What we know:
Layout: E1 2-9, E2 20-27, E3 33-36, E4 39-40, E5 46-48, E6 75-80, E7 87-91
Antiparallel strand pairs: 1-2, 2-3, 4-5, 6-7
Amino acid sequence: xxxxxxxxxxxxxxxxxxxxxxxxxxxxxxxxxxxxxxxxxxxxxxxxxxxxxxxxxxxxxxxxxxxxxxxxxxxxxxxxxxxxxxxxxxxxxxxxxxxxxxxxxxxxxxxx
Length: 112
């Protein structure tokens, strides 16, 4: 159970034009943080997850709000009824059918 924080970091205060994106991984259970570093200086200072000359990188969560123990349903197929009045959509497991879940006991699993 981790979250990611994207921010920019310059190698030195007088070099803001060299600021690179850094992804910091945070454990939501322990609070420990770790930078994802691909580029380091000779003194092992993290200067970025991606190079400073890359202007943008998209981050996305494939399963937002769903803990690791519960996988999101995957779409399998959709079919019109014979009358073409409705579409039947099937998934590989049960869905929440648009409901908003609530976690009453803070165990990261939806209770209702």
